[in-house]
Design a protein that fits this description.
This protein is an alpha/beta fold. The chain has helices at about 40-50, 105-125, 140-155, 165-175, 190-195, 210-220, 240-245, 265-280, 295-305, and strands at about 1-5, 15-20, 30-40, 65-70, 75-80, 90, 95-100, 135, 160-165, 180, 200-205, 220-230, 250-255, 290-295, 310-315. The strands form 3 sheets. Strands 3, 4, 5, 6, 7, 14 and 15 form a 7-stranded mixed β-sheet that branches. Strands 10-9-8-11-12-13 form a 6-stranded parallel β-sheet, sandwiched between helices. The chain has a two-stranded antiparallel sheet with strand order 1-2. It is globular, with a radius of gyration of 19 Å. The protein starts with a strand and ends with a strand.
């Protein structure tokens, strides 16, 4: 089968299209014929071995696929340890979910990671309450574009989106943000306060790190919450220390999606079901970010790393 393999860690240049044997399912697994592959920012970390879970070589990257089982059922699946950038993938039953009729591959793959991440950030990490002001950084991205929609659907009083281009800010406003500001502002603290009518904000969803995180923490109201779920800048924030948190009764949380499977009550399944229901009801939608041939996986990673993309990026394993 055709697959993308990494034999040395690095940037997009280490992604190579090769022929590999078809994977063999083990106990509790099944083989899926892949129809579309989801591309995540985490994949770029996996390829350079800078992800929270260490990578091992040789590696077929990719943590999510949509496809069909041998019996013809359409499914979307999270993969443990990679294996998604291929024509065939072995999936585990606990992290494989039926795709409802009326839901396309783009939507299923947008929700399996980015959608559930946005759901968890608002429901579990920041505990959004009606009327609160929510800041969504990188609002044009996969998580951000869904988080904007969910925050409005769940009663946020004001949603402030940040994005780096006019196109992304226009998209955020179209999705329901009340105001959209430039993520490259020199003083994000002041920018967010101005966008909130001079007041501090209640919640910030942040995947940037570095100065953006530091200045966002400074913009939080007493008992404000910053939910941290990534570090695209690859820069460590400096403001997460006791005196800064005590100064405004600030909460800073981290969220890594795999941990949700350790929670009781099938939280992940409930999140995905609710997202599918909202999509079928027309209340939220997935944003296409571009579809690449499997042979062009390098280009997909280059686009992600440049932070020029919007919405969800896909790979087509048939090309």
């Amino acid at each position: 089968m055709r697959a993308v393999q990494v034999t040395e860690f690095g940037g997009p240049e280490v992604l190579n299209l090769v022929e590999l044997p078809e994977p063999v399912p083990g106990p509790g697994q099944q083989l899926v014929g892949v129809t579309r592959i989801g591309v995540n920012y985490a994949d770029t970390h996996q390829a350079e071995n800078s992800y929270l879970a260490p990578s091992k070589l040789p590696l077929v990257p990719g943590g999510e696929v949509a496809g069909r089982t041998a019996g013809g059922q359409r499914v979307v699946s999270l993969l443990n340890g990679g294996g998604g950038y291929a024509e065939q993938a072995v999936v585990d039953a606990p992290t494989t979910f039926a795709i409802p009729d009326g839901v396309d591959d783009l939507t299923a793959l947008s929700f399996i990671v980015q959608g559930t991440t946005a759901w968890l950030l608002l429901r579990r990490s920041s505990h959004l309450e009606a009327g609160e002001t929510v800041v969504v950084h990188a609002a044009g991205g996969g998580v951000g574009s869904i988080a904007v929609q969910l925050a409005k659907a769940w009663g946020a009083g004001r949603v402030i989106a940040t994005a780096s281009t006019d196109e992304k800010r226009a998209l955020a406003l179209e999705l329901g943000a009340d105001v959209a500001v430039d993520s490259r502002a020199d003083d994000m603290t002041e920018t967010l306060r101005e966008a909130n009518g001079g007041k501090r904000v209640d919640i910030v969803l942040d995947m940037t790190g570095g100065v953006t995180t530091d200045q966002s923490i400074a913009a939080l109201a007493p008992f404000g919450r910053l939910a941290f779920y990534g570090m695209a800048s690859r820069e460590q924030p400096k403001a997460i220390e006791a005196r800064n948190l005590l100064g405004h009764s600030t909460t800073v949380s981290g969220m890594w999606l795999p941990h949700v499977f350790k929670l009781p009550g099938n939280v992940f399944g409930r999140a995905l079901d609710e997202l599918f229901e909202l999509a079928l009801a027309g209340e939220i939608r997935a944003i296409p970010g571009g579809e690449y041939a499997l042979s062009d996986a390098r280009k997909a990673h280059e686009a992600l790393r440049s932070r020029s993309t919007v919405g969800k990026l896909l790979l087509d394993p048939a090309k």
